[in-house]
Design a protein that fits this description.
- By secondary structure, the protein is of the alpha+beta class.
- The protein starts with a strand and ends with a strand.
- The strands form 2 sheets. It has a 5-stranded mixed β-sheet, with helices on one face.
- It is globular and about 45 Å long.
- The longest helix has 20 residues.
- Helices cover 20% and strands 43% of the residues.
Length: 98
C-alpha cells in the first residue's frame, strides 16, 4: 500500500515533543487528517486523531495494525526530515507557531 504524507506543518515550540501536524493518505483507502508526529523515547511515532473521554483518557479515532503503523511512522519521519532540510527556504505556511 502506498503511503503519502500530506500537508505537513512543523511545530516550532522549543523543547516540545510534538514535531509536526500532518495528514496521511493511504492509497485506495482514504486520508487521515489531524495526525501528529511526536518524538518519543524510542523514536518518532505518529499519533492518530483522538478525543478525550469522560475518564480523562485519550481514545484514537483510527487504529492501524503494527506493520502499517510502522510504515506510516517511517514515511512521516522521512517527510519531516525533508521539511527540516528545506528550512533555509522557510515559508510561513510550513510552520505552526503555537
Amino acid at each position: 500500500m502506498k503511503i503519502t504524507i500530506k500537508n505537513m506543518r512543523k511545530y516550532t515550540k522549543k523543547g516540545a515533543k510534538l514535531l509536526a501536524f500532518l495528514s496521511v493518505e493511504l492509497e485506495g483507502v482514504g486520508i487521515i487528517n489531524d495526525c501528529k508526529l511526536i518524538q518519543g523515547d524510542g523514536g518518532a511515532f505518529v499519533g492518530m486523531p483522538s478525543h478525550k473521554g469522560n475518564d480523562d483518557k485519550y481514545y484514537s479515532y483510527v487504529k492501524l495494525d503494527k506493520e502499517l503503523n510502522a510504515q506510516v511512522a517511517l514515511a512521516a519521519q522521512e517527510a519531516y526530515d525533508k521539511l527540516v532540510l528545506k528550512a533555509g527556504k522557510k515559508s510561513a505556511e510550513d510552520e505552526v507557531p503555537y
